[in-house]
Amino acid sequence: MVGRHRMFVRKRDGRIEVRLNDVGRAVAREAFGHVVAAERDPNHEWYVTLSAPIDPSSDQDDPVATLARQNETATNAELAVMTLNEEFLTDSEAWAWLSTLQVALRASAVANGLLSEDKLAACDPELLNFIRTLQAYLFELAECL
Amino acid sequence: MPRDESSGATTSDTDVITETIVVTKRPWNVVVWDDPVTPMSVVVVIFRRIFGYSVNKATQLMLTVHHEGRAIVWSGERDRAQTYCVKLQVAGLQSTIEQDS
Questions:
Q1: Which ipTM value was assigned to this complex?
Q2: pLDDT truncated to tens, each residue of chain A (145 aa)?
Q3: CB A28, CB A20: distance < 8 Å
Q4: What confidence tens digit (pLDDT) does each residue in B17-74 have?
Q5: Domain-by-domain residue ranges, chain B?
Q6: Does B26-99 carry CATH code 2.40.30.20?
Q7: Phi and psi for B56 in degrees, rounded to 5?
Q8: DSSP assignments along A101-130, one per residue
Q9: B41 CA to chain A: closest CA distance, Å?
């Protein structure tokens, strides 16, 4: 899908080159799109992960904190969507990609009950491929940041 | 009710004040929980970025999360703990806050 070459490369000028092909960018688009949708739709299967408790000892979290989380997550996801076709990312844009991909990775795993290595290994091959692809993107992006 | 002659406060008043101070001084912990899908290197990058930790400290905390299922990554005042917890959640890690026992 994404070839053997590096998918993300830090250049000397500090920018991060995105070497994903069209298919690779389509996977990122799917992940980013789901995060944007889940942030706005309480019925989205990823919404629960995006609204996890901050303080489990309380009946309700501080509304200011939950609003801040919603705003920051949406900002990152929207920035990632806006830069989806860019050849080079700034450090902030790459951080938005990493954060949004990581949110998508965890939300996808939680929504499908993949909370152990055994369940992950036994899950639907298409879903497993999606998760492994996100992990590969994250692994390389982390090396650049 | 006995009275402390030097300050005018009663013994009971002093006891209550002392007890209140102990309760409010207990720090709030930011806890990060393990999950089977997040790459280890991503956790290290997130800890460095959010807390400004060194590679060594971030790696040690990541390994604690991995081996023990959770790690306290920061302790202090509640407002800051809450802010850090939100930043970790925005970065995609499972995080909560709890008051130190």
A1: 0.92
A2: 544 589 999 999 999 999 999 999 999 999 999 999 998 899 999 999 998 999 999 989 999 999 999 999 999 999 999 999 999 999 999 999 999 999 999 999 999 999 888 898 899 999 999 999 999 999 999 999 9
A3: yes
A4: 666 555 557 999 999 999 989 999 999 999 999 999 999 999 999 999 999 999 999 9
A5: 26-99
A6: no
A7: -60, -50
A8: HHHHHHHHHHHTT--SHHHHHTS-HHHHHH
A9: 6
Does B46 touch chain A if contact means CB atoms closer than 8 Å?
yes
CB pairs under 8 A between A and B: 92
Alpha-carbon span A116 to A102, nearest angstrom: 17
Q: For chain B, where are the E strands, in sequence order? A: 28-33, 70-76, 95-99
Å from B74 to nearest chain A CA?
A: 14
Q: Is the minimum CB–CB distance between B77 and chain A shorter than 8 Å?
A: no
Q: What are phi and psi of A114, to 5 degrees?
A: -90, 70
Q: What are phi and psi of A60, to 5 degrees?
A: -140, 140
